[in-house]
């Protein structure tokens, strides 16, 4: 196959590209330039998509002996990821930009361009597996290394796109194995730290980034009874479950910590309360993406709402085109805007975007 290897400049994508070469594919490496001003991004390899990452990717491609290109996808990235991130926070929701990037950049814009150029598949360094179902369709499964599994952030990728996706690291036993392989291959990125943080917020100050985009929008912080206990500069600076930086000027009557319970941008109001008030048992989620046919009735699943969170037993069913998830064990700090991924064993049954939560 002709394979386009997305090379971020990290060790995972470099080894994934190397494994694709070993598998006999005709591989071309590409680095996605996602920032309009890459010189302003962080150095030190803590983020991704920086100038140094592009150089690291090129050096890895040279070692592998494959052609390498840099594609400018910055306009698409800003429109589909950065602006979406700002709009979601402005609406009082908590998005995951990595989920959106996978959905709209790596497995939409990049894959579409690859197919148009005659490539058969896109290869990435994600830790996940694509397994063929009895009907011949592609199904997303967890990686062998559960500690590195990234199927959650890929759960929004449609089966038609998985048909043209390769995840060579899905069967890796551990990240140490991948680093050791990179070392043996002479790849300079073997010891490069993993990327963290949001790549388009170089200083890690999410609240400051949003303030620069949305401006000051002062309002009140109130308790569950409606009593004003503080002020804020914008509801976009908060997320459900948050404990620190609440702007509360006095402790709760019982002395216990307060947490963000809900956010109302239209009223410029943030409601805070006790930890137990964060426990939810029911989720309603929209825009489902199914790894095959949607279930016709209630189905027992494991529900995961964070990239590195635990999956809990639940029952899911489709209700008027949306997904209702009844949790057998309560979760805390679940915010509208988050993705809920549904698993049956190691297989991703589907995913959807949480719109509302309830304690009952």
UniProtKB/TrEMBL annotation:
**A GO BP entry:** tRNA wobble position uridine thiolation
Q: Catalytic site residues?
A: 101, 199
> Highest taxon of the source?
Bacteria
Q: What is its main location?
A: cytoplasm
Q: What class of enzyme is it?
A: transferase
- What Enzyme Commission number(s) apply to this enzyme? 2.8.1.13
Residue ranges annotated for the tRNA-specific 2-thiouridylase MnmA-like C-terminal domain, each copy included: 281-354
Q: Where in the cell is it found?
A: Cytoplasm
Q: Where is the tRNA-specific 2-thiouridylase MnmA-like central domain?
A: 208-273
According to UniProt, the reaction catalysed is:
S-sulfanyl-L-cysteinyl-[protein] + uridine(34) in tRNA + AH2 + ATP = 2-thiouridine(34) in tRNA + L-cysteinyl-[protein] + A + AMP + diphosphate + H(+)
Any Pfam family matching the protein: tRNA_Me_trans_M
Keywords annotated in UniProt: ATP-binding, Cytoplasm, Disulfide bond, Nucleotide-binding, RNA-binding, Transferase, tRNA processing, tRNA-binding
- Site (Interaction with tRNA) found at 126, 338
GO MF annotation terms: ATP binding; tRNA binding; tRNA-uridine 2-sulfurtransferase activity
GO (cellular component) term, any one: cytoplasm
- The residues the record assigns to binding ATP are 6-13, 32, 125
Residue ranges of region Interaction with tRNA? 148-150
What does this chain do?
Catalyzes the 2-thiolation of uridine at the wobble position (U34) of tRNA, leading to the formation of s(2)U34.
| HAMAP family for the chain | tRNA_thiouridyl_MnmA
Family to which the UniProt record says this protein belongs: Belongs to the MnmA/TRMU family.
Enumerate the NCBIfam families for this protein. Answer: PRK00143.1 (NF001138), trmU (TIGR00420)
Query: What's this protein's name?
Result: tRNA-specific 2-thiouridylase MnmA
| Organism annotation | Kineococcus xinjiangensis
